[in-house]
Amino acid sequence: MSLAQELGEFAAEVDPPGRVRADVPTRILDVLGNSLAAYVEKDADAAPAALRAMRRWGGVPESTVLGSGDRLPAPSAAFVNGVLAHSLDFDDTHLPSVLHPSASVVPAALAAAEAGAPGDLIAAIAAGIEVTNRLGMAGCDPETGANLYFERGQHATSICGTIGAAVAVARLYELDAGKIADAVGIAVSMGAGVLEANRTGGSVKRSHCGWAAHGGVVAATLAAEGLTGPPTVLEGRFGFFTAHTGRFTPEAVTAGLGERWELLRTVFKPYPSNHFTHAGIDCALALRAAGLDPDDVESAELGVAGPVLRTIAEPAAEKARPRSGYQAKFSGPYTLAVALTGGGGLGVGLDDFAGLDPRRLELASRVRMYADEAATAAFPRAFAGVLRVRTRSGAVVEHRVDSSRGGPGHPLSAAEVTAKFTGNAQRAISVDAVAALSDAVRRLGFGGPVSDVFPI
């Protein structure tokens, strides 16, 4: 069988084990919390623009847009909800593929389920996330750890997420293996995403998971109606991997499929910023907790994995002085300054990126970033880093982390993930509504109706 056919067989037949079924509702909660917080974000532009555009197009009111109560056609609702899910850069991350699977798959699946797709929602989301992760892994160079998508400026999250979303919705439609393979073949022509916004600004990256969720719903629907895709769409001469990576590791797609679940290696973010910044944040928080006064910082050197410098350190002038709170989330120097000066306890939260703080900009200008050998060796299986600070008195303090908080070896506890959801959701809805939503999502794991989740 071709790779698409193998994925079709997997998605059509898989009955996820208990541990996976128990994990999926937590993924849904995380997406919903992030999305609700994004809906009320003060400096947002992507999600309001997406919603206004979908309202202009109108259509059959099938599925709910989170926060607004709008009901739109399932592909349109999936688009807006996917934009919301990725807008805060707070969504879960799979390693070593370094992509965010749930922000595309969950909005697509919820929109299709609310519109009447009758299948097993938990199994569908599990299959979609698993496919997304494995396609991402296949694009990692096994010798160097380099992400071949990123090397070409491609956003693996949206490109692979379109296919994963299509798989999830096709499973919800209860399509057979052949038609799910067709959905994969169709979705490959719909996935897109370029990462230059990470470096020099623009809010289009926020829309990438929305486009993936939209494409997934459309691809699965077209497959259900009889459109077909090429069976060798992934590995073929003019297929997915040729187009996006140039080479790939086929066994990463199918080895142990349905037995070894990459979904369970998808970690939750503790901080609402690009994941590459988290090791630096951890180091800064540790030095702050040990008594470092940010006003006493003469200069700082932050060592991270070499491949991440292009995202959080270059161009140096842009990263030292980001132009918006959103762009600041992709700045190693600015997020370091946030961690050293943040309010509300020893942490970094959404309010820290509500705007740009002159004190933090000045502190960021004194941060130099470089490639650290140990962090580079750990990448992409962990985000490591080392921070060295010289104080005005001439003293030097240093802290190193081998894996960032929330990452492999240091996962967030169930209580921390619940607290994250609660804090995010309460920015948009009442305490009682948050509790009701949490209970409704928990019931999804036991076959509860998706209608209980909406409207939010």
Topology:
Blueprint: H1 3-13, H2 18-39, H3 46-57, E1 63-64, E2 71-72, H4 74-87, E3 93-94, H5 102-114, H6 121-138, H7 148-151, H8 156-172, H9 177-187, H10 196-200, H11 208-224, H12 240-244, H13 251-254, E4 266-267, H14 278-289, E5 297-304, H15 309-312, H16 316-320, H17 325-328, H18 332-341, H19 358-364, E6 367-371, H20 373-378, E7 385-391, E8 396-401, H21 414-425, H22 431-444
Parallel strand pairs: 5-6
Antiparallel strand pairs: 1-2, 3-4, 5-7, 7-8
What is the compact description of this entry?
The chain is α+β, with helices and mostly antiparallel strands and 456 residues long. The protein is built from 22 helices and eight strands.
Describe the 3D structure:
By secondary structure, this protein is α+β, with helices and mostly antiparallel strands. It folds into two domains: 3-268 and 412-452, 2-methylcitrate dehydratase PrpD, CATH 1.10.4100; 275-401, 2-Layer Sandwich (60s Ribosomal Protein L30, Chain: A). Helices cover 50% and strands 7% of the residues. The protein has 22 helices and eight strands. The protein has helices at residues 3-13, 18-39, 46-57, 74-87, 102-114, 121-138, 148-151, 156-172, 177-187, 196-200, 208-224, 240-244, 251-254, 278-289, 309-312, 316-320, 325-328, 332-341, 358-364, 373-378, 414-425, 431-444, and strands at 63-64, 71-72, 93-94, 266-267, 297-304, 367-371, 385-391, 396-401. The strands form three sheets. It has a four-stranded mixed sheet with strand order 6-5-7-8. Helix 5 (102-114) packs parallel to helix 8 (156-172). The longest helix is centred in the first third of the chain and has 22 residues, at 18-39. It starts with a helix and ends in a 12-residue tail after the last helix. The mean pLDDT is 95.
